[in-house]
Amino acid sequence: MEQQQFEPRIVGFFCNWCSYRAADVAGTARMKHAPNVRIIRLMCSGRVEPAFVLKALADGADGVLVAGCHPGECHYIEQNYKTIRRFAMLRHTLRALGIDPRRVRLVWASAGEAARLTQAIDEMVETVRTLGPLRWRDNWEEDPAQREAADRTADEHAAAMEVQ
Amino acid sequence: MNGKGRLAIYWAASCGGCEIAILSINEKILDVAAAFDIVFCPCIMDVKTRDVEKMPDGHIDVCLFNGSIRTSEQEYMARLLRRKSRVLVAFGSCAHEGCIPALANLTRRDEIFAACYTDCPSADNAARVVPQPETRIDGMRLHLPVFYDTVRTLAQTVDVDYFLPGCPPEAPRILDAINAIVAGRLPPKGAVIGAATTVCDECPRTRTEKKIRRFARTWQVIPDEKTCLLEQGLVCCGPATRAGCGALCPQVNSPCIGCYGPNAGEEDQGSRLMSALASVIDSNDPDEIQRIIEEGIPDPVGTFYRFSLAHSMLRRAALVPDEQRVKLPLPAAGTAQTTGGEHGR
Lengths: 164, 345
Description:
By secondary structure, chain A is of the alpha/beta class.
C-alpha cells in the first residue's frame, strides 16, 4: 500500500492589520501556497498568549505560525515588541519540553507582502514536514496494561488479605 | 450535616506535608474531631485498604485526598475513595496540579529507574535489577504497583468535587473549607476553594513600573525589603499565582514560587508567568531579549511550572524529544513519502 505523505497541521495566528490582509491579497492574486495553515485572525500579534500556542500544540497541531506587523509598524504602537519577548520566552520553554523551536515561528508580513507571507507558509510547512507529526497527546496516553494493573488490585487484596 | 460525619484523609504521591498542614490548624482540630469521625487516614491510624473496600459506597462524607497519581496503586486508591466518598476534595498542590512530583514529567520511567536503581553512584546493582510489576518466587506471583511514565493530577484520574490549592494549603484556608463543608455552604461542584486574585494583591511591597534588564537568581542579590521583588529582577511568580497564602514568601524577602497554582479563570500558570515576565523585559532587540532570557532563566519549566506541570496544557515534556526523533530528508517534489517520526519507543 502506498503511504501518504505527512501533511502537517499548522495553526496560524495572524494580525488583522497586516498579515491577515497579506493572506487576503495572496488569495485575490491567486498566489499558490501550501494549504496546511488554519488561520485565526487576531487584532494584534501581541494578543497571542503562550497559552494559545500551547493549546494548539496540545490539541493536535504540528506547528504554530504567528504573523504580525514589522517592528515599528504596529497598529497599537509597540505591542509587537511584546510579541518578540513573549515568543522568545515561549520558545525557550518549548525547547526544554522537547519541542523543536522550529515548530513555532514568528514572521513579519505587512499588508502588501503577500509573497513574503506565502513563502514563509511554504517554508514552515516543509520544515514541520521533516520534523514529523507532533501527536502531543500520545505523550500521556498510558499503556492499557497499566490501567488493568489498577483494575486487578482489588482482587489481589482479596486474595492476599482474606484467608479462604 | 446531621450528626457526626465521616472523614478520610489519604496520601498518594506526596510528601506528608499536607497531613502536617491539617494539624497546623492547632486547637481547631478538636472542632474537626467533634464534627467528624476519622475513618481512614494511614498517616495516623491503622486502617487497611481492605476495610475501605468493605465500606458501602458513599460511606465517607468527606475525603481529603492529597498527592498526585504516579502508580497503579495510587490510581486504584483514587478510584476506590471516589466511590466510597460523597465529597472528594483534591487537597493541596499535588492532587490539584501535580506539584513537585510532577516535575518528573520532564523525564520518564526508564530514565527515573536508571537514575534511582542502576546509574546512581551509590547503587550496588550489578545485575541492573529494577522494580517489575510482577515477579515469580517459589511458584508464587508477587505484584508491585505499575510505575507510570506520567504523573497525573487527581482530577485527571477521577471525578473531583473541590480543589484546595497550596503546597501545603495554609491553615486559615483549610479551616474555611472545613467550616464550609460542616455548614453545608459549599460552592458549585468543581470549584477551587480559594481567592480569585493573585499573590501580588496580598503582597505589601511597593510596586511601580517594571523594567528589567536582567533576571537575577535568589543567591545573586540581597533584595531590599520594600520594593517589588520582580522590579529587583528576581523571578517572582506572584503575578500568575492565586492568592490565599498571605504572600508569605515575599514578606520574608523571598520571591513567590507559585505553589497556589494558577489564578481563577486561568488554565495554564506557566503561560501567564511567561507573559508577565516577558512583558517587563526592557529591550526591543531580539538578540538582547534572547540573551536576557537564556542567562536569567536556565530552567524555564522548573520556573514556570514548578507546581503545575501535570495540570498544564502540555502536561509533560515529550517522551521522545524532537531532537532524538528520526528525521526525514526533505521530500523530492511529487514523490510519496512515509510519515515517520513515530512516538513509540
